[in-house]
Amino acid sequence: xxxxxxxxxxxxxxxxxxxxxxxxxxxxxxxxxxxxxxxxxxxxxxxxxxxxxxxxxxxxxxxxxxxxxxxxxxxxxxxxxxxxxxxxxx
Length: 90
What we know:
By secondary structure, the chain is mainly α. The protein has 5 helices and no strands. The chain has helices at 2-16, 27-34, 43-46, 54-66, 73-86. 14% of the residues are buried.
């Protein structure tokens, strides 16, 4: 009887708990993990993208990263957003 009450209490608690929210990857950390071992700084390879519009640059970087050590969409998006925010001319 006590076991059934304990199981019921745990089930109710689990059902009432808010769902875990997946954290979006941090762009700098994702870059460090996926890119920095070969590209210590993005400045050199970002030169080829600087004359593009932000939309073109983001699409091209996403396309490139799919096959270049960042197959995970969330990680790619974080890297692209970080590059866009920190490594483009204003």
